């Protein structure tokens, strides 16, 4: 779809993707989603981009590296797994049993826990109400209800640092708009792109090859046995 210059960046993105002018609430939630997914420190994809730029390659190479790193389920690819989990649960009534079975088998519940945020991811709380409104607007409130069922079932594990993170709500936003799962990571990258570019430019300004040392923790020196004696 051709761009509509009368719309905001986020609203225009939805217009060009769907061919429908989004509601004010839907556009606002998309804007919040982009803002909350912005680059915020030395996360895996930003660091990977810096490593690439450190080899004196160009900006495009750094962004390709960042995108590849973002795609991993332990980083930006988690939204897809959350949506798959919601589909597996099916109805809000099944959420508690699903979580109980996962914890009994010592399996992770997708969308909970963060390497930095030990309490609730502060970004998640800014999406919760918007996701509820969007579900009601799109005539599919059950997706939000399933998410909240999982949140309620996970409350006993909050003391272990297993709190909801930003990826928990993102997938349902895209699902409600009918966006295919293979576009989730590229959408995440839209919000992350400005920060990646600044990270790369900063690395270029005072560049140095990033080559971390690794500590060997394997077996100690062992006696060599000649091949003829083995």
UniProtKB/TrEMBL annotation:
GO molecular function: citrate synthase activity
Entry's Gene Ontology BP terms: carbohydrate metabolic process; tricarboxylic acid cycle
Transmembrane segments: none
Keywords: Acyltransferase, Transferase
InterPro entries, sorted: Citrate_synth-like_lrg_a-sub (IPR016142), Citrate_synth-like_sm_a-sub (IPR016143), Citrate_synthase (IPR002020), Citrate_synthase_AS (IPR019810), Citrate_synthase_sf (IPR036969)
Top EC category: transferase
EC number: 2.3.3.16
Pathway: Carbohydrate metabolism; tricarboxylic acid cycle; isocitrate from oxaloacetate: step 1/2
Family: Belongs to the citrate synthase family.
Protein's name in the database: citrate synthase (unknown stereospecificity)
Organism from which the protein derives: Shimia marina
Gene name of the encoded protein: citZ
């Amino acid at each position: 779809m051709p761009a509509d210059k009368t719309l905001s960046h986020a609203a225009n993105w939805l217009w060009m993707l769907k061919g429908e002018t989004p509601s004010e609430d839907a556009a606002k939630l998309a804007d919040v989603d982009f803002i909350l997914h912005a680059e915020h420190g030395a996360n895996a994809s930003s660091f990977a981009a810096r490593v690439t730029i450190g080899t004196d390659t160009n900006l495009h190479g750094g962004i390709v590296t960042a995108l590849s790193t973002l795609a991993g389920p332990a980083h930006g690819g988690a939204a897809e797994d959350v949506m798959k989990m919601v589909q597996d649960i099916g109805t809000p009534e099944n959420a508690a049993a699903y979580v109980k079975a996962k914890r009994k088998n010592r399996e992770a519940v997708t969308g909970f826990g963060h390497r930095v945020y030990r309490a609730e991811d502060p970004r998640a709380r800014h999406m919760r109400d918007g996701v509820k409104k969007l579900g009601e607007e799109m005539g599919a409130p059950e997706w939000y209800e399933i998410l909240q069922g999982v949140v309620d079932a996970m409350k006993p594990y909050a003391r272990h640092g297993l709190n909801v993170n930003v990826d928990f709500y993102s997938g349902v936003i895209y699902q409600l708009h009918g966006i295919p799962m293979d576009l989730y990571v590229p959408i995440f990258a839209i919000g992350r792109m400005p920060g990646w570019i600044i990270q790369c430019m900063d690395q270029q300004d005072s560049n140095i090859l990033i080559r971390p040392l690794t500590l060997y923790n394997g077996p100690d020196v062992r006696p060599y046995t000649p091949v003829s004696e083995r």
